[in-house]
TrEMBL record:
Its main location: membrane. It comes from the Bacteria. Pfam families: OmpA (PF00691). PANTHER family: LIPOPROTEIN YIAD-RELATED, STATOR ELEMENT OF FLAGELLAR MOTOR COMPLEX. The keyword Endoplasmic reticulum does not apply. One of its GO terms (cellular component) is cell outer membrane. This is OmpA family protein. Residues 53-169 form the OmpA-like domain. The keyword Membrane applies. It is found in: Cell outer membrane.
């Protein structure tokens, strides 16, 4: 009995050593990330637009490509735009721009118009997926002037549109300042709903 009491006491002592005293800084790896982020945004040390732009580029394909001399969306382009629309729906405060590009074949003036047609085709498709047109802009066409591949020949990788975060609804630049926790909470609710659905399906299968 004495032996077990000693072991139990040692376990309590070891466990107690794992906790910090009240008032000590929290480990930023687990706590305070949202607060630190909001503080940095409000102080001007960090741009939430830049953060969202980086996250969008990392999590969703931002580029679709086109056939030669065409603004038609093929199956792969629509699939990518579906993924973009799903991501964009998470952030109703955010605006996006779609930039159109072409390869170097053809006149510069024609390619500029073609690039804009491509950007508008992408915007129109996103609207059909439930994204408000007020949040989408096909405001620029770089035509042939910003190729990914330097060539005067036909090149599909240059015939593209690129979707990017551009700002915030109604030009409210700080619309999401102080709301990073709310964004994380939206993600949490979405993931919880998905788990719940899976659980329900599993129960039905049984």
């Amino acid at each position: 009995m004495l032996k077990h009491a000693a072991i139990f006491g040692l376990a309590l002592l070891t466990g107690a050593c794992a906790y910090k005293e009240a008032g000590e800084p929290l480990d930023p790896k687990y706590f305070g990330v949202a607060t630190n982020n909001n503080t940095a945004v409000l102080s001007g040390d960090r741009s939430y637009r830049v953060q969202l732009a980086t996250r969008f580029a990392n999590e969703v394909p931002s580029t679709i490509t086109f056939d030669f001399d065409s603004a038609r969306l093929d199956g792969n382009a629509r699939q990518i735009l579906d993924a973009q629309a799903e991501w964009i729906r998470q952030f109703p405060e955010v605006r996006f721009r779609v930039y159109g590009h072409t390869d170097a074949v053809g006149s510069q003036s024609y390619n500029k118009r073609l690039g804009l047609r491509r950007a508008r085709a992408a915007v129109n498709y996103l609207v059909t997926r439930g994204i408000s047109r007020k949040r989408l802009e096909a405001v620029a066409s770089f035509g042939e002037t910003q190729p990914l591949v330097l060539t005067a020949q036909r090149e599909r990788r240059n015939r593209r549109t690129v979707t990017e975060v551009s700002g915030f609804v109604a030009a409210r630049v700080n619309e999401l300042d102080g709301k990073y926790a709310a964004v994380i909470y939206r993600d949490y609710i979405t993931s919880a709903a998905a788990v719940s659905t899976l659980s329900t399906d599993s129960g039905l299968d049984e």
